[in-house]
Specification:
By secondary structure, the chain is mainly alpha-helical. It is built from ten helices and no strands.
């Protein structure tokens, strides 16, 4: 089945007014119902729409129309366009958020920062369609409305789907063990050093009570000497 022509109703209007094609042939070519084409012919539908010549737009040839006019069973074929337009590229950027939901984004960001601290700012930006500066302001509690913010699940708010959230969390989880391992390797001390430090601490703790006892003994001795001196 061929694709529908550009502006099907406008094309159907032109074909009704300028050819001897049957309603079924026009309906098949324009991907409309035959009764809708009949309503267009009777003036009951598509009022106010200007007809579009498919020959001028390169969607039909005069020969193709004449062939169909002479054979009621023939179905019109959409002509190959002479110029092919490139497919529009999808623009990468923050997720679009409806205006009615934009006021909920700070609450969703706060929820993500508290419940999924492993997420990168770029991931939060993809999920709720925000900016890095807004995320940083909420993290630093310098956001203009920080006093009224309340953490709210972005899925519940309709800012993202549960599938999107789970996907970002899984991505963050895959990257996190590598970072933690590297961090742990840089900070852990060898077993020999920790054992030596523990022994030194135990020796120091054993020394302290004896030192305190010696001081007390010295004061007691001095007191006794002082008492004897007064008696003599």
């Amino acid at each position: 089945m061929s694709n529908a022509p550009l502006m099907p109703k406008a094309t159907a209007i032109w074909l009704v007014d300028n050819t001897a094609l049957s309603f079924e042939q026009i309906a098949d070519f324009c991907k409309l119902h035959a009764l809708e084409v009949k309503a267009i012919a009777d003036g009951d539908a598509a009022q106010g729409i200007k007809g579009l010549d498919p020959i001028l737009t390169g969607q039909l040839t005069r020969e193709e129309i004449e062939k169909a006019e002479h054979d009621r069973d023939y179905r019109l074929q959409l002509a190959n366009p002479k110029v092919r337009l490139p497919q529009p590229k999808s623009k990468k950027g923050p997720r679009y958020t409806p205006v009615s939901r934009r006021q909920d984004r700070p609450n969703a960001i706060l929820w993500l920062l508290r419940n999924h601290a492993e997420l990168k700012d770029s991931q939060i930006m993809r999920l709720v369609g925000t900016t890095k500066s807004t995320i940083q302001a909420i993290r630093d509690r310098t956001h203009w409305n920080v006093a009224n913010l309340a953490p709210m699940d972005p899925v519940t708010l309709g800012l993202c789907s549960q599938i999107d959230l789970d996907l970002e969390v899984q991505r963050a989880a895959k990257e996190k063990p590598i970072e933690d391992e590297a961090h742990a390797g840089a900070t852990l001390l060898p077993a020999a050093e920790t054992t030596a430090a523990r022994k030194e601490a135990e020796i120091e703790s054993e020394k302290k009570p004896s030192d305190e006892l010696n001081v007390e003994a010295v004061f007691a001795k001095l007191k006794q000497l002082g008492g004897k001196g007064e008696q003599s």
